[in-house]
């Protein structure tokens, strides 16, 4: 028993000195002590938080923010605008001049695209709980990847529907864009046919990415619960996540200000 207590004290001292990295997991029976180490996300003065170049109104940026919150990762948000993304400094980080962009200085790693960043966050910082993106479950990861690829289509449908309105070219969504949007929402309804969440019975980064998208849509296109009952139920549960408002409130307010009215979908 004294040996176990001594080991715990020594490990705690190392943790305080290093400022992050591991906590101890002790398993013991009558004759043996097993010690394992699991990553945690505490911060010291010597550790730089990963930086996200960020636009609050952007659904992909908000999806990355929610992922960090979901795994307890402290990040630094630096707000940028479209003009800043085209400066030489930013183009060196991301030649596609899009946000979000991740700069993880401690790992000497830079990447853009929200899906790539979300996967990286879970793999690098979530420790033993990788349920948001289970790296050792190939089939589950494949389903999540499929949902993330579909999320790209959702954003294309969103641009098709709203860009002409935001630019003042049209006052309402075109019939073609309306049909495409309804088709996409219908596929989300199918995803939820047998599951509580988008890729199964546990929440994943696919849910967070689609949640950021759908919360944007809802500012002007309220969901029809009769036409999309499962999607409406999913959306209500997802908005109850403890970090939803913190990660989305500011951006959704900006979008409402840009559009300033509801657009009928049907």
Notes on the protein architecture:
Residues 137-265 form the GST C-terminal domain. Residues 48-129 form the GST N-terminal domain. GO terms for molecular function: glutathione transferase activity. One of its GO terms (biological process) is glutathione metabolic process. Homodimer. By secondary structure, the chain is of the alpha+beta class. The protein folds into 3 domains: 2-40, no CATH class; 51-125, Glutaredoxin (3-Layer(aba) Sandwich), CATH 3.40.30.10; 138-259, Glutathione S-transferase Yfyf (Class Pi), Chain A, domain 2 (Up-down Bundle), CATH 1.20.1050.10. It has 9 helices and 6 strands, in the order αβββαβαββαααααα. The protein has helices at 2-18, 59-70, 88-93, 114-125, 138-166, 175-191, 205-218, 229-238, 244-259; strands at residues 21-28, 33-40, 51-54, 76-79, 101-104, 109-112. The strands form 2 sheets. A 4-stranded mixed β-sheet has the order 4-3-5-6, covered by helices on one side. The protein has a two-stranded antiparallel sheet with strand order 1-2. Helix 2 links the parallel strand 3 and strand 4 (76-79). Helix 2 (59-70) runs parallel beside helix 4. The longest helix has 29 residues, at 138-166. It is globular. 30% of the residues are buried. Mean pLDDT is 82; it is low at 1-44.
